[in-house]
Write a structure and sequence with these properties.
252 residues; alpha/beta; TIM Barrel; eight-stranded parallel beta barrel; 10 helices; 10 strands; globular
Length: 252
């Protein structure tokens, strides 16, 4: 897997911050959306092109800000069918061209087709509750198992007790043994601490997490985890987020 390459990129960037890209058509600037509607007519095609432009601007922000990685939400694009898939493919190709480590949040149960395609991303997320075969070994690629989600009813399943631990922890331990990274979305330090304690060598991808809550995921050298921030839209916001994280985590 390419987890080592991701960690090396984070060390080079001197920051564990990644840019989350999950745009909705509602957040696209009204003048921009109108411009595409005037060219293409209202509908999915205009929406897709507006999303393409908006997401490419975010990718450029990540590049210019020196971030090592981006996490792209597939659900922002795939509901538009083939047009959305084309936009997603363009984003992956653009990230690779900019030498930004690109993870696509597919939450798939069958990652092979996504990671063996010609313009495949560096890594994808999977939903591991279907079983361990969702974490195959694919040379040069990374798989991130989403073991702890932020949807309100996630705990109904993830917090079920499996022996002496919650189900999400038991599942995380199995995925970590297969070499997968672990995705934690709740932003709670208790979840982060528990997974780090049970999976000491696993790479953790944290979402919706500030520096204080993320800190337990990192070792003394600032290695072993990444924080994906989906709120960043301007260069000054990125620098502020970097500075805030650095108060809790320093990469050496």
């Amino acid at each position: 897997m390419s987890m080592e390459r991701l960690q090396a990129a984070l060390r080079k960037a001197k920051s564990p911050l990644a840019l989350g890209i999950a745009p909705t058509i509602g957040e696209v600037a009204a003048p921009l959306k109108k411009q595409f509607e005037e060219m293409l007519g209202s509908g999915n095609l205009a929406d897709c092109e507006a999303l393409r432009y908006h997401a490419m601007q975010l990718l450029e922000l990540a590049s210019e800000s020196g971030l090592a990685a981006v996490v792209i939400d597939a659900d922002s694009f795939l509901p538009y069918g083939m047009m959305g898939a084309d936009v997603l493919g363009n984003l992956v190709s653009a990230a690779r061209a900019k030498e930004i480590y690109c993870i696509v949040d597919y939450r798939t149960t069958r990652p092979n087709p996504y990671l063996t395609a010609e313009n495949a991303p560096d890594g994808v997320t999977v939903l591991p509750y279907v079983g361990g075969d969702c974490v195959p070994e694919i040379e040069g690629k990374s798989i991130f198992a989403t073991v702890r989600t932020d949807n309100p009813t996630g705990g109904e399943v993830q917090n079920l007790i499996a022996g002496d631990r919650p189900l999400y922890v038991a599942l995380a331990m199995q995925c970590a043994r297969r070499g997968a990274g672990l995705v934690v979305e709740t932003g709670y330090s208790l979840d982060v601490r528990e997974l780090r304690r049970r999976c000491p060598s696993a790479f953790l991808m944290l979402k919706h997490c500030d520096g204080e809550n993320a800190a337990p995921a990192f070792d003394d050298y600032g290695h072993g985890a990444m924080v994906a921030d989906y709120t960043l839209r301007k260069a000054e916001d990125v620098e502020k987020a970097k500075k805030s994280l650095k108060e809790w985590v320093s990469i050496v």
